Amino acid sequence: MFSSSVRTQAHSLPQNLLLASLPADAFARIAPHLTPVDLHAGDVLAEAGGAVKHVYFPQSGVISLVVEMAAGQNVETAMIGRDGVLNAGAALDGKVSLSRAVVRFSGVAMAIASDKLIEAAAGSDDLRSLLLRHEQVLLAEAQQAAACNASHRTGPRLCKWLLRMRDIAGNDNLMVTQDDLAEMIGVTRPSVTIAANELQKAGCIGYRRGVVQIFDAAGLKARGCECYGIVQGHRTAMLGPHAPVAGPPAVAVSGRSRRH
To answer: In 10 A of CB 201, how many CB atoms?
Structure first.
């Protein structure tokens, strides 16, 4: 439940960085239709091939876009957090979702019905342009992830993932297990353990059960693959100089709190 003061603050001072970047008149079109919702780890917000009824602007937490393989494993293609939006492109085009979207870490989002977003975007070129450019960034991230998974070792990929998570969490303390890391990177848990131990010995991170603390982001960038910088470059080019860059600290990312 949200108090009236929380709702008022959410509408007047958006914590989602995409919403915050909108001109006042564009934000005014969408604000009355935004409703705060809790995101619980494990919630499925979209199914591949399913109709899109709501669009989500996360304020905290992380949503994973995943592709389910025939063998049963999930492969993550992109992450959406406070710098993004889920389902906007599919809603505007009146099409189905292309990916399964699962809440990876609990948080809060501002949700809007798809038809209300379509109405708001029809009356605002700024809003429609921002949403479409964000979809291009997601496509670039998914393409880069495919190339990264095929070309780079576990260690550099882990660095990339931690840096990206730091960006969207706004925090250096990430509540994440090694099982989470293995699933999101698409490798075995022993591989993640070896890579994480190497980063810990180098002083880049600290790790205790269920929590990764980033001590040296520059060190992670130096040890990571080029993919993090490439995707950040796309993000800045498409969303402008105010595209989010890593910045601690907000609140710690909260992990698997409840499933439905």
So the answer is: 9
What whole-number distance in Å separates Cα of residue 35 and Cα of residue 11? 9
Neighbours of 134 (CB within 10 A): 21
> Where do the structural domains in the chain lie, given as residue ranges?
4-147, 152-239
Q: Retrieve residue 9's tokens.
A: 């603050």
Say if CB 186 and CB 149 are below 8 A apart: yes
Instruction: Report pLDDT for 241.
Output: 58
Q: What is the identity of the amino acid at 187?
A: V
Whether 77 and 71 have beta carbons less than 8 Å apart is answered as no
Q: How far apart are CA 26 and CA 42, in angstroms?
A: 32
Which class is domain 152-239? mainly alpha
Domain 4-147, CATH: 2.60.120.10
Q: Which two tokens stand for residue 148?
A: 């990264």
Q: Dig out the tokens for 236 from the structure.
A: 């800045």
- Same fold across 4-147 and 152-239: no
227: closest CA among 237, 216, 235? 235
pLDDT of 100-159, one tens digit each? Answer: 999 988 999 999 999 999 999 999 999 999 999 998 888 888 888 888 888 899 999 999
> Could you tell me the two tokens for 185?
């990177």
